[in-house]
Design goal:
- The chain is mostly helical.
- About 85% of the residues lie in helices and about 0% in strands.
- The protein is built from 19 helices and no strands.
- Helix 2 (about 70-90) packs across helix 3 (about 95-100) and helix 6 (about 155-175) packs antiparallel against helix 7.
- The longest helix has about 70 residues, at about 1-70.
- The relative contact order is 0.07.
- Keywords: Ion channel, Ion transport, Membrane, Transmembrane, Transmembrane helix, Transport.
- This is Aluminum-activated malate transporter.
- Belongs to the aromatic acid exporter (TC 2.A.85) family.
- It is a multi-pass membrane protein.
Length: about 500
């Protein structure tokens, strides 16, 4: 029926009606599609503008923040650019190019591969590259001479067997821990150089001249890197390791104080919120200690290559810093267990039990953190301390007080007759209060006991840090304490005791 009506209308109005209908339809179609199309175009234009302007601006902002936070990275980039510019002159200037030849490109490759952020890393890679190149070139020339003396038919077999044996042995040696720690890069350069010289020397007549040119260009590149890294704004790996250890000690002491005070916090809402905002970094400072093992090992390895600089002699015991770092990580693991097992535990100890041991726990954490801060001061000043023994005795006495306090906790949580309980308690309480104490569940006291045992374990591990620092002081020959420093140390101790 609707079709019939349409046909009649078409018969009456003819083509004019159709055109109007088509115009209306087309206008409706255009109006319905214009909105999404324009919105898609706007979104596309917006994304293009964002891609062209916002992301580059964000990248520039991050790069600027990085440069402001550590300008030494900017200087390192400038030093690498300077080294590459100088070594490129062997290619750009004809007299230098004639003297070195086409092997000048090896000097450019050497600068790119060898130049590192710290002086120790640059020295390590430079010496590894020179020794690996020289040893591989010397052996390759010897094998090539033996192959020539053996005859033309057996020459390729001798060269192939030598490449197989030496490459396999050098690759296996990279798995040995002592070689991997200090000579891994040199082994890789040995494999590369021996293979290249052996393969290229099979078709090259002047093998000695080629090996001499490559070795000379590598020496030029490494010497330039060493000079620039040591003269222009040097970054010493030993100084970086020294700063990292002392900073981790301060973070460890602050974390210990922050975690224990956070557990026993008893203050108003405003004070607690303010302390939480200011102590977030202190609570999680121990994580820097846990995550610094790889950095410490790398810096200690590079520091052993460095010459005497600043307050550090040539034979400074850098390995001892790794021992100190390992002892600190053991202490940091206990603080992490304290943070997640006690502070963030769903089982909470009763407040009156927490108040009972809060003073002794806070005193113990304060004494322990004072010992750690004093150890950091010893390393910073490179001078033995006169107050470390007194602080250790304070910490040990606090540990003993905490142990004595823990012995009374089973009496508090064990239900007893009222008469026996009153005889065992020094501070006599009422019957209602004791009924409340006697009804404590053993599960509620587990976080408090865990906290106490962790503090005792932390104190034991701090003794390990003290032994490691004292060993460092003996090996590095720290200056003894004179009378003035002894008086200053005793005055500081008495001030701490009076403020406590």
């Amino acid at each position: 029926m609707p079709n019939m009506v349409v046909e009649n209308k078409e018969a009456r109005s003819g083509w004019e009606w159709r055109m109007r209908v088509n115009d209306r339809l087309s206008s409706k179609v255009l109006s319905s599609e214009d909105g999404p199309m324009i919105s898609r175009m706007l979104l596309g234009l917006k994304s293009v503008i964002k891609l062209m302007f916002l992301k580059p601006s964000n990248f520039v902002k991050k790069a600027w923040d990085l440069a402001r936070s550590d300008p030494r990275k900017v200087f390192h980039g400038l030093k690498v650019g300077l080294a590459l510019t100088v070594v490129s002159l062997f290619y750009y200037m004809r007299p230098l190019y004639d003297g070195v030849g086409g092997n000048a490109m090896w000097a450019v490759m050497t600068v790119v591969m060898v130049f590192e952020n710290t002086v120790g890393a640059t020295l390590s890679k430079s010496l590894n590259r020179i020794c690996g190149t020289f040893l591989a070139g010397f052996i390759a020339v010897g094998v090539h001479w033996v192959a020539l003396q053996s005859g033309e038919k057996s020459e390729p077999f001798i060269m192939g067997i030598s490449v197989f044996i030496l490459a396999s042995a050098a690759t296996f040696s990279r798995f040995i821990p002592s070689i991997k720690a200090r000579f891994d890069y040199g082994c890789m350069i040995f494999i590369l150089t021996f293979s290249l010289v052996s393969v290229s020397g099979f078709r090259v007549d002047k093998l000695l001249a080629m090996a001499h040119q490559r070795l000379s260009t590598i020496i030029i590149g490494t010497s330039l890197c060493i000079i620039i890294s040591m003269v222009i704004c040097p970054i010493w790996a030993g100084q970086e390791l020294y700063t990292l250890i002392t900073r981790n000690m301060d973070n460890l002491a602050n974390s210990l104080d922050g975690c224990v005070s956070e557990y026993f916090v008893i203050s108003s809402d405003e004070d607690s919120t303010g302390s939480e905002k200011g102590s977030d970094g202190n609570l999680l400072g121990y994580k820097c200690v846990l995550n610094s093992k790889a950095s410490e090992e790398s810096l200690a390895n590079f520091a052993r290559w460095e010459p005497a600089h600043g307050r550090f002699n040539f034979r400074h015991p850098w390995r001892q810093y790794l021992k100190i770092g390992a002892e600190m990580r053991g202490c940091a693991y206990c603080i992490e267990a304290l943070n997640y097992g006690c502070i963030n535990s769903e089982i909470k100890a009763p407040e009156y039990l927490k108040r009972r041991v809060s003073n002794i726990c806070l005193e113990m954490s304060s004494n322990s953190s004072s010992v750690i801060k004093e150890l950091a001061s010893i390393i910073k000043t490179m001078r033995k301390s006169s107050s470390i023994d007194f602080l250790m005795e304070q910490m040990k006495s606090a540990v003993q007080d905490l142990r004595n306090e823990l012995k009374s906790l089973p009496i508090l949580v064990t239900p007893q007759p009222l008469e026996e309980a009153e005889n065992t308690r020094d501070d006599k309480k009422t019957e209602a209060n004791f009924t409340e104490v006697a009804s404590v569940s053993p599960m509620e006291i587990i976080p408090l006991v865990t906290l106490s045992f962790l503090l005792i374990e932390i104190a034991a591990r701090i003794e390990g840090i003290v032994d490691a620092v004292e060993e460092l002081a003996d090996l590095a020959q720290f200056k003894p304490v004179d009378d003035e420093h002894k008086e200053d140390g005793t005055m500081k101790i008495f001030q701490r005791v009076q403020t406590a």
